[in-house]
Amino acid sequence: MPAALIQHPFMSQPALAQCNAQAMVDAMLAFELALAEVQEARGAVPEGASRTMRATLEAYAFDCDAIAAGIASGGNAAIPFVKQGRAALPEALKRYWHQGATSQDVVDSALMLLLGPRLASLDALLVRCRAAAIDLMAAHEGTVMVGRTLMQQALPITFGVKVAHWALGLEQARRRLAALAETGLPVQFGGAVGVHSGWDDLGLDFMDALAERLGLGRPVLPWHTDRQPIHALGTALDAVAGAAEKLALDVALLTQTELGEVAEPAAPGMGESSSMPHKRNPVRCALIRGAARQVHGHATVLLNAAAQPLERGLGEWHAEWAPLIDSALLLEGALEQAAVLLEGLEVHPEAMRRNLAATGGGIMAEPVSRLLAPVVGPDAAKRISAEAAETARRSGRGYAEVLNEHAEVQGRLDPAAVHRATDPALYLGSGRAQVQRAINWLTNF
C-alpha cells in the first residue's frame, strides 16, 4: 500500500516516527524485562538474572522483518519476538524469559505503552485548541452573524457562541480522554487462560507490580477477553474526532466564496488548486475531516470486536491492533491541524454583516411578527413581515424603512420600536451570557 501518499499525510508525522515497528519491539521488550525484574524481586527468577537479560537484550538487534514474517505462522508479533529474545539469551536464562506470560500479555501491554505518550500529546494539542478558542470567543462575543438551520438562514447569533460550541465539544472529549490517561492504560498479564496458571496467588502480585514498574494502570483482573478498556479508549478517541470534525465542517462551510465569513490561516501554497489559480481551498479542514472519518471507521471495528470468545479472541483481538494505533495517529494529525486552524483563523465580520442583509432583513421576520401580532393578528403579522422583507431585498432598502411604510403598519407602530425589532444585534437571546458561561467552564479545569 502506498501509505506514504494516501495514509500518512493525515497522521501526525512525529507520532508516526515514534510508533514504528522498532517502537513496538522496544515496548514488547520493556514488558518482558519488567516482568523478569518483578519476578526476580519475588524470588521467582535467580538474583541478577534480570540485569543480565536487560544488558543482553537491550544490546541485541531484533530482526523486525523476521518478526513480521513470523506473524503469518504465529498470528501475532509476540511469538516470533519471544523466540528471538530467547535465542539471544545465555542458556541458563532461557527458561526465565517470558515466564508465566502469554502472547496477548505482551502485545496488549506493548500497545498500551505505545499509546500512553500519544494520549499525553493529544491532551496537549487539545489544551492548545482550548486556549485559542477562548481567545476567539472573547474577541467575538458580540460579533453578530447568521445562525443557520437545515443549511438556511434562520436567526442571528454571535460568532463567539459558535466558537463556544466548538470549544465545548473538544473540551468535553478531552476530559473524557484525560480520565482514561489519569487512571492509566491497563497492563495485561494473565498467562495462558488469564488465571496466572502455576503461580497461584503470586500471579496478581506480579500483575500489580508489573503495572507499577511500567507506569500502566492496575486492572482488577486480566482482561484478555474483557475488552472494556479498548472499548473505552476507542470511543473516547472517536469522541475527540467527532468534535474536531464538527469544527472543520463549520469552518469549511463558512469559507465558501459566497459566504466568506472566515478563512483558514494563510500559508505559502496552502489550499492551492492544481488547475485554478484563484482558489484557496480549506485544506486543513479537509485533512481534519479525512482523518476523523477514518477514526470513525476504526471505532466501528473496535466496537464490533468488543465481545470476544471464551479466554482468547479469534480474530477479534487481532483486528484491534491497527485501528487502535491508527486512530491515535490520525487524531493527533487532525488536532495538529485544528490547533493551527483555531490559532490563526481569519474572521471577517464585514462579510457576516453582509450576509445578515442578504434576505433584505427577512432574518428578523420572527421578532417583527411578534411586534405586529398584537396589532394586526398573527396571520397578518406573518404575511406583512414576509412581504416587507421581500420588498426590502428587491429594492435594496432597509427592512425597518419598508415596514414603516407598509399600508397596514403605517401609523400603528412606533418607528423606533420597528427599528429595534429589525436590528439583529438586539435579538441575540442569551448569546453573550452563553459565551461567558462557556469561558468560565473551559477555564475551570
From TrEMBL:
Record's keyword terms, sorted: Lyase
GO molecular function: lyase activity
Record-linked InterPro entries: AdenyloSucc_lyase_C, Fumarate_lyase_fam, Fumarate_lyase_N, L-Aspartase-like
Keyword Lyase: yes
Residues covered by the Adenylosuccinate lyase C-terminal domain: 360-439
Pfam families: Lyase_1
Entry's family note: Belongs to the class-II fumarase/aspartase family.
Entry protein name: Adenylosuccinate lyase family protein
Species the sequence originates in: Halomonas heilongjiangensis
